[in-house]
Amino acid sequence: MSRTAPNLKLQKLAQRLADFDATSNGFSGTEMLAEFRVVEKLSRPLTTLAGASGVRSLLARSLSLAKGYDLRLSEVQVNAKGSLESVGGVSSGADVAVITELLGLLVAFIGESLTLSLVLEIWPGFPVADTEPLKKDQHDPAS
Amino acid sequence: MIPQVKVKINKLPTGVPGLDEILGGGLPDFSFNIIAGAPGCGKTTLAHQFVFANATPERPALYFTVLGEPALKMLRYQQQYAFFDLSKLNSAVRFINLSDVLVQRGLEGILEEISREVESSNPSIVVVDSFRTVLRRVRENEMEAQVFVQSLGLLLTSWEATTFLIGEYAESELRDNPVFTVSDGLFWLYQVVERNSVVRKLQILKMRGQTSVPGMHTFRITDRGLQAFSRTLGLSAVRNRKARTGNRLSIGIPELDEMLGGGIPEGDSLLVAGSSGTGKSLLATQFIAAGIREGQPGIVAVFEERPEEYAARASTFGLDLSGAMGNGMLKVIYLRPLDLSVDETMQEILDAVRETGAKRLVIDSLAGFEMALSPGFRADFRESLYRMIFALTGIGITILSTVEMEESFTQLLFSTYSISFLTDDILRLRYVEIGGELRKIMMVVKMRGGNHSKEIREYDITSQGLVVGERLAGFEHLITGIPMRVG
Fold first, then answer.
1. What part of B 82-101 touches A (C-beta under 8 Å)?
2. What is the DSSP string of B394-410?
3. Cβ–Cβ below 8 Å for A46 and B72
4. Is the peptide bond between B365 and the residue preceding it cis, with omega within 30 degrees of 0?
5. How many Cβ atoms are within 10 Å of A11's Cβ, its own excluded?
6. Which residues in A lie closer than 8 A to residue B95 (C-beta atoms)?
7. CB-based contact B101:B134 (threshold 8 Å)
8. Residue A127 DSSP label
9. Could you give the ipTM of this predicted complex?
10. To which H or E segment does residue B458 belong?
11. pLDDT tens-digit profile of B22-40?
C-alpha cells in the first residue's frame, strides 16, 4: 500500500531535522541529499535495536511509502548494506520524504516520546520542544 | 588469628511486588540467573521490571536481544507497563540486538560483543533474551554450549553484573542442562489454562546463598507488570502473633452479644451460617456498623455486589455506611469475579488493613468467594482459607464470614465447606415451620473462647435490622426445622 500524501507534522519535523543537520555540519542541501545523511544517522542507532536486517526492512518500507507521493525517489533503492542509494541521482529535498516515513514508522512502533528521544540522542541540540504533537495523522487535510 | 568474617551478599529489589519476600529479601547482586518458562508466561516482563527498578545511568542495564522478540517490538509493547520509564531508555537501560552477530559469527561473536559492550558501559545488570535461541545454534555440541555458558558467567560476574538469561524451556529439560548447572538462581514461570481461566504461578527452583520460600506462588500480570503472592503470604506477621486481649466486640445487636457471652472475642473468626434470606449479610453489616460507631475501622470483602450497592442496601436498614466509606473508616473491597486467587484476595485485604487500621473484617460470602476463584484455585480453597484466617486473626483482626447453607429439615448442618474447624465461633441461622408460618431462629453453636448461651432464640428482619426475640420455649426438635409443641 502506498500513500499519496505525507503526514504534514512528520514532514515538518523531517524538514527541520534535515535543515538542522545541514546547518550543524556546514553542508549545503545538495551534499546532504547525495549522502542521505539524516536517514543514515537515524538508521545507525536503530541497528542496535532492530539489527541490520531489521533496519533494512524499515528503510525499504519507508522508501516504498515515500515513493508513493515523491516521484523524485523513483531511482532510489536500499542496497545490500542497508543504505539508500540512487542510480540516476535525485533532486534536492527528496530525502525529506524518506525521513518523514521513517519517523512515521518509528512513531507507530515505539511512540512519539521514544522517537524524539532517539532524535535527541543523534542531534543533541535539536529543539524537540518546538515539535508539534505527532500523534494525529495529517494525511487527511480536514484533521 | 584471622577474623572469621563472612562475605555479605547484598540483595537487590526485584521491582516485582511480593517477589522479594519469596526470594528471601531480594535478588543477590552479581548472581547469574535463569528465567525459564513457556511463551507468554511473563519472563520478559519480569526481567524488565527488575531492570527498570535497579538500573542507573552510572551502572546501566544492558538488554541483549537475540533472534527472539526484536528490541524495537519489545519497546513497543513493554512501554505499556507502568514501570517502564521512558526517561531511562538509552541512559540507564540500553537495548542491543545481537541477532545478526549470532547469525554471522556464532557464539564466539556473541561473547565478543557482550564483552565489548560490558567493558565499555560497566553495567550492573545484563539480560540476554532469548538465551535459548543462542544455544540452539550449538544444539549438537554440548561441550561448546557448556564452555560458552561458563565463559559468559565468568565474564559477567567478574564485571559485577547481575545477570538474567531468559529462555523458553520445558520442565523435562531441567536434567543435565549446563545452563541450569551454572546458574545461581532459577526462576520457573508457569501459565496453565483451567477451564476458561488462566492461572499463573512461579517457582524458585534454585537460589544460591539464601533461603527462598519453596513451592508454587501465584502471580498476576496487570498494567503495572507482575505482582507475586507468596505461598506464605501474611504468615510472617503471625510469628509475632498478638496476644489475646480478652476484649469483646459488639455485633451491634445487644441480645446477640449477650448470647455470645458479651460479644465476639477480639481476634476471633465467627462463621454465620444460614440459608438464603436468613439475614446473614444484614448481620454482617450490623457488625461492621457497630464497629464504626465505636471508632473501629472495618473492611468488607464482597463478591456479589459493588461497594455502592452494598452501601445502598445497608441504608435501607438505617445503617449509613457512605460516610464511613468517605472518611476512610470503612473500605468495601469488591473483588472481580471468576479468576481470583486466595492470595490476591488476602493481599488486597492486608493492604486495606494497613491503609485503614481495620479491626473488623467481613467476608460476604464464602460461597461468593469460592465462585470468584479461578477453577484452579478452588481445589485449594480450604487450605487457602485456613491460611488467610490464621494470618488475619493473627494480627488481631476479628473476622465475620457468612456461608450459605442448603436447608435440611432432617438435620442441622454447620457448613457445606467442612470449614467449621477453621472458625473459633459459629452462629447458625435457620428457618422453622411453626403453625403454618415460616419463622427464623438462631443459635450459637460454638464459642472456642468461652461460655455462651445455649438458647435457641427467634429473630426477625425489620427495617431497623435484625431484631432478636425471646427463647422459643414450648417446642422441641426446633433444629430440625419442623418442631413439635410440647405440653
1. 86, 89-90, 94-100
2. HTT-EEEEEEE----SS
3. yes
4. yes
5. 19
6. 48-49
7. no
8. -
9. 0.71
10. strand B456-462
11. 999 999 999 999 999 998 8
